[in-house]
Amino acid sequence: MSDLFSLIFTADFLGSVIRMSTPILFVALAALVGSKADVLCIAYEGIMLFAAFGGVVGSAYTGTIAGGLFLGLLLGMLLIGIFAYFVLYLHTKPLLIGLALNILGSAGTVFGLYMLTGSKANSTKLGSLTFPELHIPLIKDIPVLGTVLSGHNVLTYVAFLSIILVQVFIYKTGLGLRIRAVGESPKAASSLGIDVNKTKFIALLISGVLASLGGIFLSMAYLPYFTRDMTAGRGFIGIAAQSLGAGKPILTGIWILIFGFADAIGNLAQSFRLPSQFAQMAPYLTTLIGLVLINIPRDKKKTDNPL
Amino acid sequence: MINSLKRKQVLTSQEISNRFSILRTALALLLAMGIAILLIFLVSNNAFRDIRSLLLGPLTSSNRISQMINKWIPLLFTGTAVCLFFSVGQINLAAEGAFFAGAFTSTVVAIIGGIPPGLHFILCALAGGLAGAIICGLPGIMYTKFNVMTVVSSLMINYVVLFLGLYVITNLVRDPAAGYEASYRFKESARLGELIPGSNIHTGLIIAVLVVVLGYLLLYKSTFGLQIRTIGANAAFAKYSGMPVAKVIVFTQLLGGFIAGLGGTTEVLGLYNRFGYSGLTNHGWDGIMLAVLARNNPKYIPLAALFLAYLRTSADVLNLTSNVPSEVINIIQAIIISFIAAERFLAGWEYKTIVRNTEKSMALKEGVTNE
pTM here? Predict the structure, then answer.
């Protein structure tokens, strides 16, 4: 056991926490923007898969990272665009269209993979590209901190920067204000001349960009290729994390680091013959307990729960 | 007399709505099939044979028909369970976990020797059902006591159950002699027999049909069912009219969880001689699709489930006989859910039809009074 603890507090381990946090951080921020517009989207699994697949295909066929980024974002946005259209204009229950798009995301990418490579498992044959790592000058030379903070993938820095960007966007810009307005009181917003559906659509598209980046990270950084169902429930953890973070970007970011920590311990625990299942369970169990804890002190009258 | 005769010629708005809902379903099916056929043409080396397999594959042999019925059975359980959750207005997605929990909990009971047949299955079913009830009950309790969103908590619980189950199977009841990650053999006394000898269809079918019938009677023919549906439609109203809202919600989740858990039990004890799942089985997610198709009424679950079982059997046939990935079937499924759930799909047309119809019926009525 003491070995385990000495491993946890190494710079390498903390670095891996940051790496594992990246994709869920993107989704959590995506879910946060969606929830500000009061739309519950569970389709992030499907969106991430489409984006991850698009990234691989785009980069393999154009030979450029930009091509991968473009196609990845395009496919991710296509899926959230369908989601938004169905929810806002065809009055579909978000849960159902979300469920459908998750199925489509999983099946559609496997089908596409098979068409292009003949394999239903992974895209190693395509020879796609990955985003580069960024070694920050000066910081990388600091002994411990350098290993923790420097040398990560570019997208990891984008993810952590997005916490601040989303914070500023939601609370300091006009569009952010309009999104919060249509989320909290669509009637009041509409009486002030805000186009409710259009604003929600824009919010969802922004949410889609963030979730797509999470997917692209999976196939163009975390792993150098696409594997079927590679999101492995991260879309759902992202939703839970934003729920725990009570819609606050920075608090959500902290929860994500806790998940990343639990995830990384899971990887370590396996080498110590602890039942790996308990370690794998940890992030989900943490969420459940956290959800109960954050809701205990809240004033019941403030919520819309009729009970 | 003339009045009532003439009125028969015009439809009520309700009837028009129902017709449009059938039309929507039909269009969704057509669209999905069209896209599937297109996809098959894209990849298949023998498109006509494969389209035939997709449309008629499950009917080509008696073996495939029994296969289809065996796929139908678990869907009846999870479909009915989700109807209960959704009817009371809870988006509880834990049927997936409950089904898995039912399967691995009953496994632990099913490997104990020395229990007489019959009783052994009942004990397994109780264990599986109770496990399912706890899994689905937790999100209900978390919602009513702590106001935790059911969607989020039930999603997380599914994963907790998955890893708990894998732990139990790989560490506590794993048979090292099995040759793969699987439990010890179930004792014969716990297993479900064949319904008709030689058919491969297990007796879980009887339990499944009973569950659907009882689920329908409970939801649509009992006072408790009325309470469930009232709470689902408007919880605040139900509260002010004195219904025990929290209790009904929790009880409905427990009951639905029990049904889903029982489904997991019958599935493993009917089809296999060991527990060998290495991940969640998707039956719970299927249940959600079925509840949507059936509009939360267990009465329509058998038909919807048969349709899904048919598609899944087609997928197996495609897998065995062609190079078309069976994922085509899941794409079909996604398209169907989307368009059936899209309430405003064709809404403009429906609205115009209702307006025209009302004008017609008013004109008729005026004609009658003028006489």
Answer: 0.86
